[in-house]
Design goal:
Layout (H helix, E strand, L loop, with lengths): L21 H6 L12 E3 L5 E10 L4 E6 L5 E8 L6 H16 L8 E6 L3 E7 L6 H8 L4 H20 L2 E2 L8 E3 L5 E3 L6 E2 L19 H4 L8 H16 L9 H9 L13 H10 L10 H5 L27 H14 L16 H7 L18 H9 L10 H7 L21 E3 L11 H14 L27 E4 L1 H24 L18 E7 L4 E6 L4 E5 L4 E5 L4 E8 L2 E11 L5 H21 L19 E6 L3 E6 L4 E5 L4 E5 L4 E5 L5 E5 H4 L8 H11 L1
Antiparallel strand pairs: 1-2, 2-3, 3-4, 4-6, 5-6, 7-10, 8-9, 11-13, 12-18, 13-14, 14-15, 15-16, 16-17, 17-18, 19-20, 20-21, 21-22, 22-23, 23-24
């Protein structure tokens, strides 16, 4: 919904009192001035961001997904400089940036940086992959009270942090509450937020979103403070359990009138507890002085109800099955309060105010630079390093919060510390390796440069660079022979099937009905798995070795290559121009190569030798005598989590390498698992048997992580 600054009128009028066309009115929004940024956005340090899809649009800005090039995703809130035409709008932007960057809490969308180009100002933010509470409620119609309790606690924790900083959000609503990949919530959009000089100060600007605006904001003298946020939280709770805000109407004037008249009605047919209704009524008291504080909300008897320690991503699509005993609920609630910072005192350091320098900058409409140096300093290189290394630097890996969120074992030795297990470049691992993040030596980097030099001195020096992302596909007619293979559809089908199967088995395990499951009796052939890998992403891509003896390379331009080191044959896999979901496979030898493939053969030969010298040759390959290992599944994609590395092969096989050196290969549409423990003992088993097998490996916990991240 669009932010408002004054109560809306039924019609916009011209001087001649004629109605303004609705389309013309929409074009007046400041966000309409924000044009799509270029495909490559650069900040003041030369850091490049690849612009992706538009994530959404508000009244004042548009938001785009951006990629740093190494796989790190951010959301870029984009404001057109053309909309910052006066001192008031510029100072409003400066205040938003200052407030947001001062709020450092796990339930607040993380502020990364701000910068500008000739056309736009960009606010770089943490990206939340599971949309918003508004989208969740729209899809599900309404949430269970146990879900609402879980989310509301986190909302209260974030708002408590803001209020301790003397900040009022003033626009708390479902659409401004984002859901991250762990199904935790984060509050964002501080465009209407205000900082107070003291707890007794009041604000008088009429602002907010119609369905969520508090009565004291609407009624003169429009005096409001922290209780206005409590009202917004009450509307959010009502909307979660009943499916829509309490005062929702088609006409904005009717909404305002209902709010001012305190026309609060609860549906008779909804199955909502009396304690929940009582808490909503208390938070939606017409008199702000009668509303509860955050501590009083937390001590309300509604929070003594069922409380879960985690919500599965399956809740995005359907009603989750959650059953928690009263004793465990009390434990979960206290742990969640501690994890959110509600069990300890929070920092009350004030937010920076807008400076004289900011005002001077804002009053120079002809200046090409909008952001003052205090908001956009000359260099932010160190800031990026701090952000990328760890998602939540204040959390200890051995804390109960981390173990609960990721469902890992109590022994802290079997997990990593945030993303520190996965450095940006040159990560290496092997089945017998002692670490997940060993960097190649300087000698290796020098050797890599020699390989690149040798590759670029072939007959076609103008051939495409290996650093380029995407080659637009290749024409299958240039290959002899050219075998087109569907890949994307196979991968997506296998992933969805595996996720469904795993979810069914895990649900049966938690409900104690595992013995009643109908097992998949299909006989599946165990596919090859990755035995070692080395990440050369800054140069070429991901190198890997397979259990069938093949060496593979997933190049940065989206192509792949497999080689048989014994026969000296190669198989190139390149996206087909006429079918973007398929790959063209071409068997070749080093004597029949075009210039681009010749470069890649040089690279794959180098990384083969490099991995053999540092990671070992491994055992005997799993293949028939005389079989050419260059033809087979290749690495289609890979990604990193906090405690695992996921590899997806072109045949749909998925492999998860955990930081405790356990490896789980999923195949047979999720019905079969090939498990390698840290001592290199391997077991091929059904997914059902994994629920009780090898308890020391905590397979159930790991499979839950896998299921939620497929």
């Amino acid at each position: 919904m669009q932010h408002i600054q004054t109560p809306a009128r039924p019609l916009a009028v011209r001087d001649d009192n004629k109605q303004v066309d609705a389309k013309a009115k929409r074009r007046e929004k400041p966000s309409a001035l924000c044009k799509t940024p270029p495909s490559l956005i650069k900040n003041k340090d030369g850091q490049s961001y690849q612009r992706g899809l538009c994530l959404g649009e508000g009244g004042f800005a548009r938001c785009f997904q951006v990629n740093t090039g190494d796989g790190t995703l951010y959301a870029a809130k984009t404001i057109a400089k053309a909309s910052l035409t006066n001192e008031k709008t510029r100072l409003k932007l400066f205040a938003e940036i200052r407030i947001h960057r001062s709020l450092q809490h796990q339930n607040v969308v993380r502020y990364i940086d701000c910068f500008e180009d000739d056309v736009n100002v960009y606010i770089l933010l943490e990206i939340c992959s599971n949309s918003t509470l508004m989208e969740l409620v729209r899809r599900r119609k309404r949430l269970l009270e146990v879900e609402a309790r879980y989310y509301l606690l986190q909302v209260l924790a974030a708002v408590n942090h803001m209020h301790n900083k003397l900040v009022i959000h003033r626009d708390l609503k479902l659409g401004n509450i984002f859901i991250d990949s762990d199904m935790n919530i984060k509050i964002g959009d501080f465009g209407l937020a205000a900082r107070l000089e003291s707890k007794s100060q009041r604000r008088y600007t009429v602002c907010g979103t119609p369905n969520y605006i508090s009565p004291e904001v609407l009624v003169r003298p429009h005096e409001h403070s922290f209780p206005a946020d409590i009202w917004g939280i009450g509307v959010i709770l009502y909307a979660m359990v009943f499916g829509k805000p309490p005062f929702q109407e088609k006409d904005v004037k009717v909404i305002y009138e209902r709010i001012k008249q305190h026309d609060l009605v609860f549906p008779d047919n909804a199955r909502v507890s009396q304690s929940c209704i009582e808490l909503i009524q208390w938070m939606l008291e017409a008199d702000p002085a009668q509303r509860p504080t955050i501590d009083q909300v937390l001590n309300h008897r509604w929070f003594a109800g069922e409380f879960t320690d985690v919500i599965s991503v399956s809740a995005l699509k359907g009603v989750p099955h959650i059953k928690v005993t009263p004793e465990q609920s009390r434990v979960n609630f206290n742990r969640a309060k501690a994890a959110c910072g509600l069990a300890s005192s929070c920092s009350t350091s004030p937010v920076e105010t807008v400076t004289k320098e900011d005002v001077a900058t804002a009053t120079r409409p002809s200046a090409s630079r909008v952001l003052p140096p205090s908001l956009s300093p000359p260099t932010t290189k160190e800031k990026y390093k701090m952000v990328v290394v760890q998602d939540r630097p204040d959390e200890n890996i051995n804390s109960p919060a981390i173990r609960r969120r990721h469902q890992l074992a109590p022994d802290g030795n079997n997990v990593g510390s945030g993303q520190q297990n996965w450095p940006k470049a040159h990560r290496m691992s092997t089945e017998r390796g002692t670490g997940l993040s060993r960097r190649p030596t300087n000698m290796a980097n020098a050797a890599a440069q020699l390989v690149m030099k040798a590759a670029t001195t072939k007959s076609d020096p103008a051939g495409p660079s290996l650093r380029s992302r995407g080659n637009g596909g290749v024409n299958s007619q240039q290959f002899v022979p050219g075998l087109v293979r569907e890949v994307r559809g196979v991968v997506h089908t296998m992933r969805d099937s595996a996720k469904t199967y795993l979810a069914r088995v895990l649900t049966a395990q938690s409900q104690g009905t595992l013995s009643q499951l109908m097992r998949d009796a299909t006989v599946f052939t165990k596919p090859p798995h990755i035995t070692k890998w080395a990440d050369f992403d800054e140069h070429w891509g991901m190198a890997y070795g397979l259990s069938d003896g093949a060496i593979g390379m997933h190049f940065r331009d989206g192509t792949s290559m497999r080689m048989d080191p014994f026969l000296g044959t190669y198989m190139a896999y390149e996206p087909a121009a006429e079918n973007k979901t398929a790959f063209v496979a071409c068997r070749t030898s080093s004597s029949s190569l075009n210039s681009n493939r010749a470069k890649k053969v040089n690279v794959i030969n180098f990384v083969h030798k490099y991995m053999d010298e540092r990671l070992g040759r491994g055992g005997m390959p799993d293949r028939r005598e005389g079989q050419d290992a260059s033809d087979g599944p290749f690495l289609y994609n890979f990604s990193r989590g906090d405690f695992y590395m996921m590899f997806v092969l072109s045949d749909g096989t998925m492999q998860f390498n955990f930081s405790d050196h356990t490896k789980i290969v999923i195949y047979g549409r999720g019905a079969r698992l090939f498990v390698i423990d840290p001592a290199q003992n391997s077991t091929d088993m059904s997914t059902e048997d994994a629920m009780t097998a090898k308890p020391a490996l905590d397979l159930v916990y790991k499979l839950r992580i896998i299921c939620e991240n497929l």
